[in-house]
Each structure stands twice: as structure tokens, then as C-alpha cells.
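Please fill in the sequence for the structure shown.

STRUCTURE ENCODING:
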């Protein structure tokens, strides 16, 4: 593969697109018309003789090789070099083959565009370019299983996206160059790490490098490649930066890299990531930085009992307790409780699984058995902290807290028995959710959300009787 020759600012989103396509599970719609097709689509400007004359000098240079006009159909067809495209056609770059493909737009639009062409007007060129942020949020939505299109929020988002117009000349040039040179993910990551690691890069450049890097390391292989050339350690060291933003975005990258990636998780613990993450959570830092650090901590601890052990040894439960009791960071409480709930149930499942399968990997179970999580939680006051969080007004926060109370019940039962406030709160919530569940039922929802919350309240009250 030919090394990259595009400036990084341009390559990043394109490389991103390529990566997105290669992660074959991912199809996001960048066009209103084809919700299931992933492609960069724009209404190509007219390249026919008539309008060509009106184009600028630069565009004429691009069009000098135009020999024939391509006739698009309803299906995507590859565009040959030198072929011109009628106005109003859809053009996309097939990122797997590198070919440009063309098809007809909707019939009426096509005709409208032809009309515009006859009047000799310069056509409205609707070229949306997407920033990596836009694609990431699309990816996030995709992961959540929500529709990319449709909601009010999406419309607003799309309107925002539309503001990122770029001239067609620029876009075209980019596409043409992309046909020849495509950078591998590894090359991109090396370039981004070098950018981040270089003392001559500005803070903005470093943040931008981390921001782009985060996308790549979602892929397991990429995260392991990052490890292989020392990039992971560079990012881990970024947690030591005096710049809160560097800490924040380093944690952002690490959170993605750790996620269900044991090899990377092991190296990160060896590389001191756990300690650095806890130091950030325990010291005065902006909330945004702590949020991402907490996220990175979660993905480092999940399914990794060794890291969980180290976390307990390093006083992680105290750090998290202080975090949720601090006025400025108490909004993180639900996330913290969710993490603790996940760790408790993970250990439980490991035990159950070992029992069911008559133990296929004793080592794993052995590891989990050394994570003395529940006694630590009780010791560090998490029984009470969790009970108090039931006062939160949001349903989903309460849902998490109720779940966690259930998971802590065996450990905290005597404390909860002696807590009249907890019973009162639960009784009040019971009344509230009975009303909501009744409404839900009226609307024909017989397996509704509130009914579920009500069921967990019932079972907690039963345990406390
Ligand atoms: C990062 O920079 C340091 C010093 O500037 C250098 O020693 C190290 O090799 C660099 N790491 C990577 C992975 O490029
Ligand atoms: C990073 O910070 C930790 C504590 O905050 C310190 O122990 C460690 O030496 C620092 N590492 C580097 C490479 O500066």
C-alpha cells in the first residue's frame, strides 16, 4: 500500500469512513434516500458542456479529461475515469473498491435539476461532509440500536451537520486522491501517536490526534496493534499530563481500547494505567475529565478480575466513595453504582457458570475468588451510599439503584433492616410506580418499564420484611 500523501486533517475523516465500512456490521445512512446504504453521497454538479463554461479555472482543470457522459440508472454503477456525470445524479465512493459509483436520484429531483440546468443556472450543490464527531455519534446511536434518522434531535443534528459545507472541488480532489492512496489503520495510528507524542505539536493538535485515535482503537485488532508499537504506553503516559484536556482525551482513547480486549487490559495494568486513573479521580480535575476517566476505569475493570483485585488493593472503593460524595462530582454517582453492580454480578455469574459447566477454566474462577468485593463494599459504606441514592428523581437512575440494592441485599441485609428511611422511601416509590404502571397498562403495555421497576421494589420490600 502506498504511504499517505494527504494532509492528516483530510485523511482522518476518510480513513474513518474506510474503517467504518470495514467494520461490516456498520451501515449508517448519510443520505436521506438510502437508509441502508453507507456511502458519501452528494448531488454531483453538472459536468456537461453548458455549465462547464461557467465553472472556475480550477474546475476546468479537473474536467479536462471528460470524454463522455455517463448515463446513470436506478442501480449503482461504477464510474470510469473520464466519464462525466449528469446533474442530479448520486455519486458515492465505494470504499471497498475505491471506485466511484453513480446512480439516478429520485426521478422528480432529477428532472428538477435538469430544469435548472436548462436555465443555465449554477446548480445548488448539496455536499455534506461529515466530521469524525458526526460519524461517531452516528455510530453511538447505531450501537444503542436507535434509528439514525427520524427524531427531532436527529433533525437538529442534521441541520448542524449541514453547516459543514465544503466546496465540491475540495471534496472531488480528495476522492480522486483516495482512489490511489489508502492509508492502513496501522499507518494512521502511528501517525496519530507521533503527532500526539511530538513536543512540537500544539495542544489542539494533540487533542485532535487523540480524538481520531479513539475511533480506531474500538477495533480489537487495532487496539492490539497500538500496543505492539508502544502507542498504548504513550497514551497511558498522557494521563500524567498537566493539561486536563490531555488527561481527558487520553482516558477517552484508553476506554475504547480496553473495552473487552483482555490483551490490552493486561498491558495497561502492567503499564500503570489503573493507578493513574485513580489518581485523577482522587484529585481536583474538571468533571469532564473525571467522566472519561471513570469510563476508562470501567472498561479496564470489566471481565478482568486481576485488575479488580488491584483496584481494591489501591483503595479504589474509597476513591469512588469520595467521588460520589463530593458536591462537584456527585452526578457521577449512578455511573459508579452501575460499575459496582456490574462487578458484583460479574463475579456471581463466574461462580454460576463454573457450577453449570463443571468448571472449564478454574483459573478464571480462582481469580474472581480473590476479588473480595462485597466485604469491601460493606466496609467502605456502599450499603448506605446506595440506599441514599434512591432519592434521585430520574427513573433510570432509580432503576440502577434498585438493581444494585438487590445485588447488595445479602451483604447489607442487617443494615437495611435497621434503616426505617429505606423502607419509607421504597414504600413511597411503590405507590408512585403503581400509579405509573397502571397508566402503562391502560396504554396496552403489559410488560412495561414501570411494572418492572415496581416488581423490583416489591421484591426488595419482601426481603426487608
Ligand atoms: C515518544 O517520545 C519519546 C521522547 O520524545 C520517545 O522516546 C518515544 O520513543 C516516543 N514514543 C513513540 C511510540 O513514538
Ligand atoms: C505519573 O504520575 C504518577 C502519579 O501521579 C507518578 O507516580 C509517575 O511517576 C508519573 N509518571 C511519569 C512517566 O511521569
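FILLED IN BY: designer on duty
SEQUENCE:
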Amino acid at each position: 500500500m502506498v504511504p499517505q500523501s494527504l494532509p492528516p486533517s483530510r485523511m482522518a475523516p476518510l480513513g474513518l469512513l474506510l474503517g467504518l465500512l470495514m467494520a461490516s456490521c456498520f451501515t449508517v445512512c448519510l443520505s436521506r434516500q438510502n437508509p441502508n446504504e453507507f456511502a458519501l453521497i452528494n448531488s454531483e454538479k453538472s459536468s456537461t458542456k453548458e455549465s462547464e463554461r461557467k465553472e472556475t479555472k480550477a474546475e476546468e482543470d479537473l474536467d479536462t479529461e471528460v470524454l463522455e457522459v455517463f448515463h446513470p440508472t436506478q442501480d449503482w454503477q461504477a464510474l470510469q475515469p473520464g466519464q462525466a456525470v449528469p446533474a442530479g445524479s448520486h455519486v458515492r465512493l465505494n470504499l471497498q473498491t475505491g471506485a466511484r459509483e453513480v446512480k439516478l436520484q429520485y426521478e422528480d429531483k432529477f428532472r428538477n435539476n435538469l430544469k435548472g440546468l436548462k436555465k443555465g443556472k449554477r446548480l445548488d450543490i448539496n455536499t455534506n461532509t461529515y466530521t469524525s464527531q458526526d460519524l461517531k455519534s452516528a455510530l453511538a446511536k447505531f450501537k444503542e440500536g436507535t434509528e439514525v434518522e427520524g427524531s427531532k434531535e436527529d433533525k437538529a443534528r442534521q441541520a448542524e451537520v449541514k453547516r459543514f459545507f465544503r466546496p465540491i472541488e475540495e471534496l472531488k480532489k480528495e476522492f480522486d486522491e483516495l482512489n490511489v492512496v489508502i492509508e492502513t489503520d496501522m499507518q494512521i495510528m502511528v501517525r496519530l501517536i507521533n503527532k500526539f507524542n511530538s513536543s512540537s505539536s500544539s495542544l489542539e493538535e494533540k487533542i485532535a490526534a487523540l480524538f481520531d485515535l479513539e475511533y480506531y482503537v474500538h477495533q480489537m485488532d487495532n487496539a492490539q496493534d497500538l500496543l505492539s508499537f508502544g502507542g498504548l504506553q504513550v497514551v497511558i503516559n498522557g494521563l500524567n499530563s498537566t493539561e486536563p484536556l490531555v488527561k481527558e482525551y487520553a482516558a477517552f482513547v484508553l476506554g475504547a481500547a480496553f473495552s473487552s480486549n483482555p490483551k490490552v487490559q493486561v498491558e495497561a495494568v502492567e503499564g500503570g494505567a489503573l493507578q493513574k486513573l485513580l489518581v485523577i479521580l482522587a484529585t481536583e480535575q474538571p468533571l469532564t475529565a473525571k467522566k472519561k476517566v471513570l469510563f476508562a476505569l470501567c472498561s479496564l475493570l470489566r471481565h478482568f478480575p486481576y485488575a479488580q483485585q488491584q483496584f481494591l488493593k489501591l483503595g479504589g472503593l474509597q476513591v469512588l466513595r469520595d467521588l460520589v460524595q463530593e458536591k462537584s462530582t456527585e452526578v457521577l454517582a449512578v455511573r459508579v453504582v452501575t460499575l459496582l453492580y456490574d462487578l458484583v454480578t460479574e463475579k456471581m455469574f463466574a461462580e454460576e457458570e463454573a457450577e453449570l459447566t463443571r468448571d472449564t477454566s478454574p483459573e478464571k474462577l480462582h481469580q474472581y475468588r480473590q476479588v473480595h468485593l462485597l466485604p469491601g463494599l460493606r466496609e467502605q459504606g456502599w450499603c448506605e451510599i446506595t440506599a441514599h441514592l434512591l432519592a434521585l428523581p430520574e427513573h433510570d437512575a432509580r432503576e440502577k439503584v434498585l438493581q444494585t440494592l438487590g445485588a447488595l441485599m445479602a451483604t447489607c441485609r442487617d443494615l437495611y433492616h435497621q434503616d426505617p428511611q429505606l423502607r419509607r422511601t421504597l414504600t413511597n416509590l411503590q405507590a408512585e410506580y403503581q400509579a405509573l404502571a397502571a397508566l402503562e397498562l391502560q396504554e396496552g403495555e403489559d410488560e412495561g418499564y414501570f411494572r418492572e421497576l415496581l416488581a423490583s421494589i416489591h421484591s426488595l420490600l419482601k426481603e426487608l420484611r
